[in-house]
Amino acid sequence: YRRPHAKEARLSEFNQTERKAMLGSYTKVLFVRDPFHRLIATFLQGMGISPSFSSFVQEVLDSGMRNGSVAWKPLVSLCRPCLVRYDYVVMFGFLRQELGHLLRRAGLPAGSLLPELTDSQVQWTYRWLSEQMFSELSAHQKKQLSHFYRWDLAAFPFPSSFLSD
Question: What is the rounded CA–CA span in Å between residue 113 and residue 101?
Fold first, then answer.
């Protein structure tokens, strides 16, 4: 989609006709990750100043939707899956399998372009980390997190998410 003299703009800044034309001209790929895994990764990367995972989660919950960081905001508030019809949704933890399929559909040689990903190791590691981190949270925090990410959990299949329980 070409727009003359276009500066960088948000999708919401285009009118409905322009949005439809623009979105129709691209292959739209959405990469999603279990929201609890996103929280763990953010905490481990030191993006929160909290000394413990429990206090970091409390910061996230206290910041809410408006003041929250992109690193932990619910995905549905960032990518608008109800408004944008994505052609592909790629789940973190199945990257090698799904990226291979996506590259083949695009007519690219999938095998040579993919990094060495060991999805099963990633899944096992996050399962173990999730168990450890989830045990640090109070029952109230667990309930609040499930509520905070309820739309992500409804929109995307995270069957083994600790927040689904």
Answer: 12
Q: Which domain holds residue 41?
A: 11-155
Tell me whether residue 62 is in a domain. yes
User: Domains in the chain: how many in total?
Assistant: 1
Asked if pLDDT for residue 139 goes beyond 80, the answer is: yes
Q: How many whole angstroms separate alpha carbon 70 and alpha carbon 44?
A: 16
d(CA 26, CA 87): 9
Question: 117 in a domain, yes or no?
Answer: yes
- The reply to whether 66 falls in a domain is yes
Q: What is the pTM of this model?
A: 0.75
Q: Please report the DSSP string for 2-53 in residue order.
A: --TTPPP--GGGS-HHHHHHHHHTS--EEEE--HHHHHHHHHHTT-S--SSH
User: Is 55 domain-assigned?
Assistant: yes
Helix, strand, coil percentages (3-state) for the chain, rounded to 5, are 55, 5, 40
